[in-house]
Amino acid sequence: MGEFDFIARHFRPLAGAGAMELRNDGAVMNLPAGEELVLSSDTMVEGLHFLPDDPAKTIAQKLLRCNLSDLAAMGSRPRGYMLNVSVPPNRHYDESWFTDFAAGLAEDQKKFEFHLLGGDTTGSPSPLVLGVTILGSVRQGEALRRDGSHEGDGVWVTGSLGRAALGLQARLGQLKDEDGSLTLAYRVPTPRIGLSLYGIVSAAMDISDGLIQDCGHLAEESGVAITLYEDKVPLSPAVRQHLSHHKERILLGGDDYELLVTCPPEKEAALQAHCATHAVPITRIGEVSKGAGVRMLNHAGKPLHFSRIGWQHF
Ligand SMILES: [Mg+2]
């Protein structure tokens, strides 16, 4: 199959305004007056970010949703994306696989109201590599950042943590996922698109590499220390039942794609009210103080010690 036919069959139907049906050398994008562009990229590699026998549809959704989560962390709404696909030869990535993959993209484009703008397709001697560059917009000067936390702010997290990290273990046959909720969280994260936290939170990021490590990034960028309380971390019932055997995996594992924010005490009621309006659970799990680094205290107020800090790519 030729590259151009392949693109026309699978990706042309996904192209929206500005993509000019993928018939030109580039795309054109307009932004509403008073808004600025927010850009982010995420790449997924077979065997590392997804398993070859994960459904093509959920691989497509995870690819878009980890990018959407970065936009959510910036307080931005999605506008479009560029897709780069490197396909290995002689594998099960055939016509029907890409039909399902494109169906997953189409479903999430509709759900999150954005569309394909362009991209590139190549062969690859190595595993399947999928890359997305996502483009979003935000009112001028209103992008959320990691560097605004102050002493006295609370540390808050959306949703619950650890489901995806345990979902991967379930996929690898290491634990039982009785209701399937862990595997689903691993395959199809829930990006917190749609919240408007500018003017409420002092700093924000999404949790992709694990709570402790990502809190470390926030603390470092803001020049503060963060204290977390183990018994405040929100866990689903399916995760809680594995807490004694998989504590590190739950607290340090990645792929949560929840928002981590800090919020001054006088804005906490607004934060809770806003999240309630959007049916997004949010929990206060710690606080910001002077100093540096992250520590987590157990119910007795003793610091927990971990054998590692979180997911490292290199
Ligand atoms: Mg991120």
From TrEMBL:
The residues listed in the UniProt record as binding Mg(2+) 3, with positions renumbered to this chain, are D25, D70, D206
Report domain PurM-like N-terminal positions. Answer: 24-138
For the ligand (Mg(2+) 5), the binding residues are D209
Where along this sequence does the record place binding of Mg(2+) 1?
S41, D42, D120
Q: Binding of ATP: at which residues? A: G119, D120, R146, S208
Q: Where is the signal peptide?
A: none
Q: Which Pfam families match?
A: AIRS, AIRS_C
**Domain of life of the native organism:** Bacteria
**Family, per entry:** Belongs to the thiamine-monophosphate kinase family.
Q: What does this protein do?
A: Catalyzes the ATP-dependent phosphorylation of thiamine-monophosphate (TMP) to form thiamine-pyrophosphate (TPP), the active form of vitamin B1.
The protein here is known as Thiamine-monophosphate kinase
Q: Which gene encodes it?
A: thiL
